[in-house]
Specification:
heterodimer; A: 211 residues; 2 domains; 9 helices; 77% helix; flat; B: 309 residues; Arp2/3 complex 21 kDa subunit ARPC3; two-stranded antiparallel ribbon; 11 helices
Chain lengths: 211, 309
């Protein structure tokens, strides 16, 4: 349901060709209310959503300098609000639940399973890569021509260990009854209150157009 | 380049989402058919490997460094379908967890990087993997993968009405080219290192199914036929730069050609300057080019077989 709301909200924003200040303020207010209801640290969220500004700001500046001031402002503000909406959903929903919901929406099972495993092991392997970098530095490694080769060597070592880990993971999965497809997790039961809440959120997202 | 939400115009992102969804379903089905169940953890963990590998910096001089993108590396090691699936997973996690790339723009990012980028990276490797040009092919694949993805992103931004001055477009293209060369170099060095460490790991990549290359070839052929037949209706009739310069300088080089061709000026002379004449001339030219390419390919393939036998 949260995915449906997120897609509806971002699509609604996208359809605002020339958003007025009232419409943008209404959308921001909706997100702040949702964040407050979820008891999230709003200042942190607002700052974190601004991570898109450097990239988007450059293109907004290009559009601004080409003479289309309204479009430049629209790109910057709508992109920020979209990033904030995604952040709200990501902060209140584990990725595993989002992927289970995606499975319910008939996203290919293989894609869901690969994404689950990717998310599960990305932090493990990232810390492993960090350790290899520190080991390289502590052995006198520094920037230069040789370190280009050395970096490739680090990746090769990481790849080799990743391959071995994949074999161990497969054996562990077999030991836990893996039969070729990962078992689907249980989705939380949807209550009427959830339905009204999400429908209300979708309605508010559409109502922004009326401001 | 990860495109955020509300960057692209609604028709552009909606079209790309509509293209990406069935394409991803097709790639998933082919990846499942082409790999056994023991490879499922490998695919997931390879995606995590690419994440981790992007943390390793490669110094490129002048105090800057680059990092591996990984599409071509995955294609060389896992095959194109599995690589496209893994890159799609990476893009989904990046969009939902790291806010790198939009949610509605996922279709555009998947189209650019997971589908076109991986295919552009894999094709040179597929054609030259069993020749002495293998590592050149890996380099070319890495270069094409990043360059094609970047150009597609630029094209989508232009289609969405973001007007960039020509100088800025040139600079953006050059930056993509520099990144593409870097990706080619890094991918080549990494593949060599992996092969040196354990040749069996690098040689594990399955041969691509013939069908994806045939489907791609069929799609390109169809697009060529459509463009040749109907592109004339929307083509500009204004003279090109060289012709305009010639006109300003008073040159008339078309008046006395050395060879007379029945298809001169891209039309069948006997039919006059009608749509049918131009379309027919275009199709005949297309057939001629195709014949030359096929014959040339046979000659090259025979030469390659002679070399490897």
């Amino acid at each position: 349901m949260k995915l449906a709301w997120l897609l509806a909200f971002v699509a609604s924003l996208s359809l605002l060709r020339v958003p007025t200040v009232a419409q943008l303020a209404g959308a921001l207010a909706l997100l702040i209310v949702i964040g407050a209801c979820g008891r999230l640290p709003l200042p942190n969220l607002l700052i974190r959503a601004a991570l898109v500004v450097p990239v988007v700001g450059l293109f907004s500046l290009i559009v601004y300098l080409s003479g289309d001031h309204v479009r430049a402002w629209a790109i910057l503000s709508k992109t920020y609000l979209s990033a904030l909406a995604v952040l709200l959903v990501a902060s209140t929903t584990p990725l595993a639940s989002i992927l289970e919901a995606a499975r319910w929406y008939r996203v290919p099972a293989m894609l869901v399973e690969v994404t689950q495993l990717l998310h599960r092991y990305s932090f493990v392997l990232s810390s492993h890569a960090q350790q290899l970098r520190i080991a390289f530095g502590s052995r006198g490694g520094r920037a230069g021509r040789e370190s280009f080769q050395a970096s490739a060597g680090i990746i090769a070592v990481l790849f080799s260990r990743t391959y071995e880990r994949a074999t161990l993971i497969h054996r562990a999965m077999l030991g836990r009854g893996f039969d070729g497809t990962m078992p689907a997790g249980k989705l939380a039961q949807i209550r009427m209150a959830d339905v009204f809440l999400i429908l209300g959120g979708v309605a508010c997202s559409i109502a922004v157009h009326l401001l | 380049m990860h495109i955020p939400d509300n960057f692209l115009a609604t028709p552009v992102w909606a079209t790309l989402d509509a293209i990406a969804m069935p394409a991803v379903a097709l790639v998933s089905r082919r990846a499942r058919a082409g790999t056994d169940t023991s490879k499922l953890p490998l695919l997931g963990v390879m995606g995590a490997f690419v994440f981790a590998a992007q943390m390793i910096n490669f110094p490129v001089g002048a105090g800057t460094s680059g990092h591996l993108v990984g599409g071509t590396l995955l294609a060389c090691l896992l095959g194109p379908e599995a690589a496209a699936l893994v890159v799609t997973s990476i893009l989904i996690v990046q969009a939902l967890v790291f806010q790198d790339g939009g949610v509605l723009a996922l279709g555009a990012n998947i189209f650019n990087m997971a589908l076109c980028g991986v295919l552009a990276g894999y094709l040179p490797f597929a054609w030259l993997r069993r020749t002495k040009w293998k590592y050149h092919a890996v380099f070319l694949g890495g270069l094409c993968s990043v360059f094609v993805s970047g150009l597609l992103a630029l094209a989508e931004l232009t289609l969405s009405g973001i007007r960039m001055p020509p100088a800025l477009l040139m600079i953006s293209g050059l930056l993509f080219l520099v990144n593409a060369v870097l990706e080619g170099a890094i991918t080549t060095v990494v593949v060599r290192s992996i092969e040196r460490m354990n040749p069996a790991l690098a040689g594990d990549a399955p041969e691509a199914h013939r069908r994806p290359v045939r489907s791609f070839t069929g799609a390109v052929a169809l697009a060529s036929l459509v463009l040749t037949s109907f592109g004339i209706l929307i083509a500009s009739t204004a003279p090109d730069g060289l012709e305009q310069l010639g006109m300003k300088m008073g040159l008339h080089w078309n008046n006395s050609p050395v060879l007379d061709s029945p298809l001169a000026s891209y039309q069948i002379q006997a039919l006059g300057a009608t749509w049918l004449s131009k379309a027919a001339a275009g199709l005949l030219g297309l057939a001629a080019i195709y014949t030359v390419c096929v014959l040339g390919g046979h000659v090259l393939a025979r030469a390659r077989r002679t070399y490897t036998s």
